[in-house]
Design a protein that fits this description.
This protein has a single domain, classed as Aldolase class I (TIM Barrel, Alpha-Beta Barrel). The two termini are about 15 Å apart. The protein has helices at about 15-30, 50-60, 85-90, 100-105, 110-120, 160-175, 190-195, 210-220, and strands at about 5-10, 40-45, 65, 95, 125-130, 145, 180, 200-205. An eight-stranded parallel barrel has the order 1-2-3-4-5-6-7-8, surrounded by four helices. β1 (about 5-10), α1 (about 15-30) and β2 (about 40-45) form a beta-alpha-beta unit. The protein is of the alpha/beta class and about 220 residues long. The structure holds 2-phosphoglycolic acid. The site of 2-phosphoglycolic acid has 13 residues, from β8.
């Protein structure tokens, strides 16, 4: 069965201590999430990936891991970069092309395509963010997250009807693609999106910082 995807983007939040508290809460409170129907993916900042990975393994938790970014280069002399081969040690997924990367780090379509190819070549699955139905989507992409900029962190999500329309038009252009919605998702509005026939899940930013709210979102999705 095609699972509903729930992706937590923890952005550049949480140090080790805060992350540990978040994980303890997730471990204690996840029993009502139906993991047979849901793929719940946590994307912590790079410095926490190893900790998250070992915590998930040690406690035998059914959560998956993703990164929030990847180098456009393979391994080599690229100071400060983390490449796809390195991510593969911890992650099944990687978010590519988030609007904050496009805006603050000037990542353009060409670079994003290279990042997708790098990830794909190492078996890390891209979750590719677009702001509208016209953003180019590289060929290798099988999961897209539609994230209109006005909805990110604003508390005002897009309407489920419009998100559904955008998802449909992405799917018309590209077969066998899963489209998620992201932007001001919380536990009260999530079902309005995941019940749309063209939406296969959600990408959650702010609301995922509170572990209990993230669990409610995962239950309600
Ligand atoms: P938000 O962020 O849930 O805080 O709106 C979503 C995102 O940036 O992926």
């Amino acid at each position: 069965m095609d699972k509903v995807f729930i992706v937590a983007n923890l952005k550049s939040y949480k140090n080790q201590q805060e992350a540990q508290e978040w994980l303890y809460s997730l471990r204690t409170n996840n029993s009502k999430i139906d993991f047979t129907k849901k793929e719940v993916i946590i994307c912590p900042p790079f410095q926490l990936l190893a900790d998250f990975s070992s915590f998930i393994k040690t406690n035998n938790l059914p959560f998956k891991l993703g990164a929030q970014n990847v180098s456009p280069f393979p391994e080599g002399a690229y100071t400060g970069e983390i490449n796809a081969k390195q991510l593969k040690d911890y992650c099944e997924y990687v978010i590519i092309g988030h609007s904050e990367r496009r805006q603050y780090f000037k990542e353009d379509d060409e670079m994003l395509k290279t990042k997708v190819q790098q990830s794909w070549s190492k078996g890390v699955i891209p979750i590719f963010c677009v702001q509208n139905e016209n953003n180019p989507i590289p060929d290798e992409v099988s999961i897209v997250a539609y994230e209109p900029v006005f909805a990110i962190g604003s508390g005002t999500p897009d309407t489920p009807e419009n998100a559904e329309m955008v998802a449909r038009s992405i799917k018309e252009k590209k077969e066998n693609i899963k489209v998620l919605y992201g932007g001001s998702i919380d536990s009260l509005n999530v079902k309005n999106f995941t019940s749309s026939s063209n939406l296969g899940g959600v990408l959650v930013g702010s609301a995922s910082l509170d572990p209990l709210e993230f669990i409610r979102i995962s239950e309600n999705a």
